[in-house]
Structure formats: structure tokens, C-alpha cells
């Protein structure tokens, strides 16, 4: 008999044998007691060595469990055992249905009469969720089973784990926080947290930039909380330089280990989920600010009301704050619409699940912007295609810091630099073979750079002749501006419509992956024209992106 019919026969027979008999048969074959109470791993029918996370608390009352299930996409090796009784089976099935492809790694396990340490001990990790009515007995059972524990952050649980010198905490509802907690817990070591809980405080005093402090003028402007690429830091400097009546407080929410752009205060994950942090944020924002610029639709009152700004808006209105929204990219760019507009769209290379997630985010945020009627600003012109009711507030770069006087295109073999932050957003895998072919023909010297510190990247930009930025998005971003500020020829893909709507014609050599070779060859065939284009780029970026024009755009809002 061929292999396929054999597999079908075995599968059919397997479905007809109850799970308890399958376990007994395996035990008998292994020479162990066949009818001893099975462990959680045996009920999942997983071999030793397959990472297994067990949740043995209540299903319906656990407010963190939905996030745990959805976070499994970020943990592709982990299986999850949901221990549930008959009354919870429907709720468990509904949860599993929201897990996407990860649902194949979630196992419903019947709850035994008593959840004992022996029953749980075959798992690798245990999750203790967020159920306000649950006690700590299950946590003690996990500890007795010798399991590494990841628990939803609360003061009682944190102190209990600290007393036992083990465990890790995550922010309920935060997928990245849970995934990182599981990854930390799965690493070799004793799993002990720092005494007393997290190693960093939930709120830290920041390192402010050269902006005027809050309270120095009648306009008390709050900025927060994303600060992607330091754009809020640059905006704070630009606005206070232009307006003597404005003082600023910039709050940045971030994981403790990430780069610290200048800010007045840092909210460290998972601190936004703590009640004391939320109360402090509400006191400062609602009681002190007169104006607020909400960055990337992130919440400003901690995570008390959810993971985006929409649920914070009623409180902000009641406090009579003037609020504006600011967006930069994926939080408002709709993947489906982008694919329809651009044959070379970056979303062709994006993972389908990422496209789906970004679609949900973009649609939710556009709905918030439309329904709120708040002033809405975007930092790149291409986003005007997605939200034509928005206003372009040009992104800001340190023009003087990037400027250099090194001549361009004087080398017989010019240096071409490509430095993707994320390959799929730049079209790197599509454009790189074309650049490599030019390099192999000794037409150019290609420098592909990824993951370098900012100062080292600046040195490489200043030393090159041509900067190739994204060829798949339709607009120019920070890296293009830095290249122009350095006086280099910049190549990028620009969509004509939104730039015309913004009233600008960026001096950038327009190209797609298919036209890249021809574009670079044309630049080299007419080097004087290319040098003139680079000089025009330096003037353009100083006119539009040194912060002065951006401050002008926000002037009416700040009145």
C-alpha cells in the first residue's frame, strides 16, 4: 500500500479511538502504567521537547486571555494548553477561532477533578491571567509544579512572585509584552525577576531637548506618546522656536531597552497598564495641558481605556483641551487602497497577516479621525491619498547636522548607498539585484547598510554620491530628507498626485524597481544635471524640512 492511503487509514483509526485509550496504548508500549491519570502534555498529545504553555485558570473571566491567544502568532514554536470544563468549551472555541493560523497550536484539555502540580508539571511554562476574582491558589500550584510563570501584571501577583524569586509579568492586552515575557521565561537561567518586580520604574524623568518647558508660556502643549524617529522631539523644538508663548511637555511611551529620543518623561512598558501610572497621566494631561498633539493615535492616559486614542477622547473633551491628531505612516495608510493605487506597492511583499493587521489599524484610526472632527496632520504627502481631509505637516530633520560640502559624482565609479530600516517597506529585495548588477559591471560601487547606529549612518550618507531610498511607497521619508540635506542625489518612487496636492515638487530622481537601472544610468550620463539636482535637494529640504514650515502649519491650532 502506498504511503498516502496508509496515512489516511491511520488518521481515520486515530479519530475513532478515544484520547484516553490512545494515551494508555502509548504508555503500555513504553512500559509504563497505562491507566494512570494523564498529564497535560499527554492530553495535548505532544512529544517531550515541544514547548508547551499551560493556562489552567478560568476561561470566561480572564481578561488577559484574548491577548494571550492572539499573541501566539508572535511565538511560532509555542503550543498552548487551555484547561477548561464542559461549561467553558464554547468560550474556549470562540477564543481559538480568533487565533488565526496559531489555532492549530492551541489544545483544549478537559479540566480534571483537581488541577494538581503532577498534572501540570509536564508543561514548560504557565500563564496566570487577569481575573479580578481569582485568588493565588493556582499560582501556588504552578510554583509547586516547578513551572516558569508569566503573569498579567498586578501589584498582588508581582509581590507574590517576588517573594518566591521567580516569574515574569506582562501587560494585559499587550501582545508584544506577553510575547517578550514568554521569550524571557523560556531562556536558560533561574527565571528570577529583579527583587520587587520590574527592573525599571514605570515612569522615569526624561532628558528634555532644547525646547521651552511647560508652564513657561500661556499655551501648555502636551506631545505624546509615540515619538517615532524622534519626530515629536524635533516638533517640540520647532514650535517653541517659532512661538514664544508655548511651553511643551513631551511624554514618550516605550520599552525600557529602546533608544531614548529626548523627552520630558518616559512611560516604560508595561507601566501604562498600571492604575497609579494612569492616574498620574490623567492628572497631568487633564489638569495641566491646554493643547495636546496625539502622536500615531496612541493613548495618552495610559492604557486605562484601551490601546488607541479613541476611548480617551471623551475625557479630553470634558477637560476642554484643544486636541490634534498626527500620523506618520502605517497607522493610517490602508494596504488595500495602496495596492490598488501602486503597481509596485510595498504591500505586495508584506506578510498577509501583517496586511490584515495594518488594514484593521488603518480603518479604525481613519474612523476615529473622521468621527472626531479633530485637526489632523500627516508628515508625508502620500498619506493625503488615504486621508485627503488631513493637512501636510512636513517631517523634520536636522538639516545642519547632515549638511556636508563634499562634492558628488566626481568619482568615475560613484558610491550608491541603500540603507533599509525594513526591507519590505523599501522594496529592497526587488531593487537589490538591479543595483548588484550595476556594481558587478563596475558602473557603481554599491553599499548596502542595515542596522547601523545613527552617527555611523550619517558618516556613510555624507561619503556617498547617490542615496537610493524606497521604490515602493510613493513618497519620500526621513532617509530621503537626510540624503538631500547632505547634498546627495536621491532616488525614490514618488506618486505625483499627493505631492501636487501638497504643493511641492521634490527634487528627487523618480524610479521604480523596474526603471532603477535606467534612472541611475541617466544620472551618470548627465552628471552636471545630477549635481544640480543634488544642490536643489539641499535647498528644498532646508525650505520644507528644517522645522520652520512645520511650526507654521501648527500655528492656527495653537491659537
Structure report:
The chain has 559 residues and is an alpha/beta fold. The protein is built from 23 helices and 19 strands. It has an 8-stranded mixed sheet, with helices on both faces. It has a 6-stranded parallel sheet with strand order 3-2-1-4-5-6, sandwiched between helices. It has a 5-stranded parallel sheet with strand order 16-15-17-18-19, sandwiched between helices. The longest helix has 21 residues, at 352-372. Residues 1-15 and 189-198 have low confidence and may be disordered.
Ends distance: 82 Å
Q: What class do helices, strands and sheet pairing give?
A: alpha/beta
Q: Which stretches are poorly predicted, pLDDT < 50 over at least 5 residues?
A: 1-15, 189-198
* Chain-averaged pLDDT: 88
Query: If strands are numbered along the chain, what order do they take across the biggest sheet?
Result: 7-10-9-8-11-12-13-14
Largest sheet composition: 8 strands, mixed
What percent strand? 5-15%
As an assembly, this protein is single chain
Cα shape: globular
Got a strand count?
19
Could you list some keywords that capture this structure?
559 residues; alpha/beta; eight-stranded mixed beta sheet; six-stranded parallel beta sheet
